[in-house]
Design goal:
The structure is a homodimer. By secondary structure, chain A is an alpha/beta fold. Chain A folds into 3 domains: 179 residues, MoaB/Mog-like domain (Molybdenum Cofactor Biosythetic Enzyme, Chain A, 3-Layer(aba) Sandwich), CATH 3.40.980; 71 residues, Alpha-Beta Plaits, CATH 3.30.70; 156 residues, Maf protein. Chain A contains 16 helices and 17 strands. In chain A, the strands form 4 sheets. Chain A has a 6-stranded mixed beta sheet with strand order 2-1-3-8-7-6, sandwiched between helices. Chain A has a 5-stranded mixed beta sheet with strand order 14-13-15-16-17, with helices on both faces. Chain A has a 4-stranded antiparallel beta sheet with strand order 10-11-9-12. Chain A starts with a helix and ends in a 9-residue tail after the last helix. In chain A, 52% of the residues are buried. Chains A and B meet through helix 2, helix 3, strand 2, helix 4 and strand 13 of A and helix 2, helix 3, strand 2, helix 4 and strand 13 of B. Strand 14 of chain A pairs antiparallel with strand 14 of chain B.
Chain lengths: 430, 430
């Protein structure tokens, strides 16, 4: 098969929603040391193209285990993608396992071998050459997916009606080959992910179910992380435009709790709205310890909007960095409405920002008391014309409290920015 | 079988290093929306008990897919743990799938049904009862693992010589049942994970291989994340104390690059050394945007050592929060040795800390230039008697540069603290 023929065949399988499996190879995966990230990533891409992934497996760097997983996947799947185990070391046995499972032989691809020799002669001792050249071994009859210079090729072989695809494990090498394979497969856009903040999973579920009543052919999944809830709508035979109509109805039902679609993060939503409003942001953090600033600065281009922040963990830091009155901290406590408000107004003024958020609370496990138990967090948002504060009580361990507090701070900033853009608040369809 | 008999059988399988498989059930897993975390967690527990996990699979909430994965796992594994799909909704079909794969019938367990009815009568509309009672259905002949009141039981059935274990998906319900199963299995402590910072993967590999030359029965895995390298030593038939001797030799070879064992994080190591030395810490961050502070404050008890920090993203913030001379920033640039040093000394003085680190660099994708390309990051460490700075050039995208810069800042703090504790630097066996 030529590469073009492979691409065409994959597109046919995708159009037919054929069953697909992904097998990730690596002893670190089955020992539980590392979570498999290739499996979910490949599955997502295959599903977007229309394939139906109903198996993701991790197996160790062991020829028998890989061959056995591959053989059993072949009984039920039309496309099987194996990632990893194509490198030069003695642990890299995916080629041998595939040869065994498919009853094929291995032979050196002269072009790949040439490229590997070229790199080896420049960078390595001659003793390493034989080992490196193992990467040039391809299954008899395989279509080669060209690698970057000096790395392992991808390989595609037909096994009966099925296609078996071997891809390198490193994501940088794997991704371009996977993209090549899916070139001709239309992205079905059969999924819409709508993201929300500020509502419970149950509230989201109720609103969405009401919005979807009467529609058919739409599969609903509600996914809750500690502080955010995603709504996934999947086209399962809806009418044309049915998915888009459903998404529109759900967005309206979610109101201002909806902050974006797809992969957008809450921090991106905050920066986008602030950028559109021409406003700059600052933050003052105690219990979140820099997590809010870190989330904002993780977004490329954050510097156009985000000026900076203070992590005022110790009480003295709240005074020395932000000018919070030590007497206020002594009388009202660092976890209080006036402390949060003084932190927000302090950081806003020091950095000359248009809007600022502050977070001060008790993440635990220590530090709680009867009237301020672990999980008590005060938030404040300050702008030129107003300063507001509110308290939340989060359950969970330290990590859970910090995660929820970080998301809540970002969402309070977002809600304040949305209200400034549209003071009527007409966006909330609840 | 009684529960005790199951526990004894699992201990026997563990002692024999029997092959085990884990199957995680959930459509959100195979669609790539959520990564499977149950699989790796269960695998880790089973491996610690001595079992050899060579398959972790994710399958959707689909009776055929689950039954097929279970049937094919049964051909090669003595213990198969299935998590998820035991709840009350129509999506929860693991019971039915297991009945199909094992050719067993389902019947209601009267005790579980009673407990479910008790909860249902208090909390739910009567229409929901039938659905909730599905959770009481157990495989004929199954040993029931008692759940919390009103949730699904775990189930264990023998299938030939193999054991099939069904556990609920929610980790809170799954964990206690898994722990019960492994009660009698000795934890083999057959693995040592030694963590390093500051060395490349190749350097670590070379040092460790040299340290292990002449030893046998130890399997070595070197795991590299973007900026840290873990060394995993696994007992594969070493002499008594062989694993511990190997770990000791490897620690010596790694010298000060070794920062701890097991699950310890680099931030924990920094806080532990600073705490032992009675020193307090502050940080000033530009391109890492709060990530260093967030990593430190993620550790319970961080407040004993970490005072706070400044996220000075905009140039003005470096001056207003830390007192960095604007003229210095104008002439030398914000990404420069003097800027990093002024940030470190500034935050140290403002917060009254014993030692402070500063990070200023270009994370990209924008902001690079010919002499300061994306990935250029300056670091400084300031204490009462010295201020030092150094530059690193990281490759990778924004996220990669930020991750590497965060880890490097923590490691420079750690190395500075280690040198203060042991000025001879005798710890490095390189």
């Amino acid at each position: 098969m030529t590469v073009d023929a492979v691409i065409t065949r994959v597109a046919e399988l995708a159009r037919d929603h054929a069953p697909a499996a992904v097998i990730a190879v690596g002893t670190e995966l089955t020992s539980g040391l590392h979570a498999d990230t290739n499996g979910p990533e490949v599955a997502r891409e295959l599903e977007s193209a229309g394939l139906r992934v109903d198996l993701i497996s991790s197996v160790p760097d062991d020829e028998h285990a890989i061959a056995s997983a591959l053989a059993s996947a072949l009984t039920r799947h039309a496309l099987i993608v194996v990632t990893g185990g194509l490198g030069p070391t003695h642990d890299d046995v995916t080629r041998d396992a595939a040869a065994r499972a498919l009853d094929l032989t291995l032979q050196a691809d002269p072009e790949i071998a040439g490229a590997l020799r070229q790199v080896t002669s420049r960078h390595r001792e001659s003793g390493a050459t034989a080992q490196v050249l193992r990467q040039a071994e391809v299954l008899s009859g395989a279509t080669v997916l060209t690698p970057k210079l000096g790395t392992a090729p991808g390989q595609v072989v037909a096994a009966g009606d099925a296609l078996v695809v071997l891809l390198p494990g490193p994501p940088r090498e794997m991704r371009p080959m996977l993209r090549t394979l899916l070139t001709a497969a239309e992205r079905h856009e059969s999924v819409r992910t709508l993201r929300t903040a500020g509502l419970t999973e149950t509230d989201v579920q109720l609103r969405v179910q009401r919005a979807l009543s009467g529609t058919s052919g739409i599969e609903l999944t509600v996914l809750a992380t500690p502080a955010l809830v995603d709504v996934v709508l999947r086209d399962r035979g809806a009418s044309p435009d049915g998915l888009e109509h459903a998404a529109t109805a759900v967005r309206a039902a979610l109101g201002t709790a909806w902050y974006g679609d797809g992969e957008v993060t809450l921090a991106e939503a905050v920066l986008r709205i602030a950028g559109a409003a021409g406003m700059t942001i600052a933050v003052a953090e105690s219990c979140t310890g820099g997590s809010v600033a870190a989330a904002l600065t993780d977004v490329p281009g954050a510097s156009a909007v985000f000026l900076g922040g203070a992590v005022t963990y110790a009480d003295d830091a709240k005074s020395s960095l932000l000018g919070v009155d030590p007497a206020l901290l002594a009388t009202r406590g660092a976890v209080s409405a006036p402390a949060a408000e003084a932190m927000a107004t302090g950081v806003r003024k020091r950095l000359g920002a248009d809007i600022a958020a502050a977070i001060t609370g008790i993440a635990g496990p220590g530090g709680g008391s009867a009237d301020k138990p672990v999980g008590t967090v005060w938030f404040a948002v300050a702008s030129a014309d107003s300063t507001t504060s509110e308290v939340r009580h989060f359950f969970g361990d330290r990590h859970g409290v910090r995660t929820r507090a970080t998301v809540t701070a970002l969402d309070l900033l977002r809600q304040a920015l949305v209200r400034r853009m549209d003071p009527t608040g007409g966006g909330d369809g609840a």
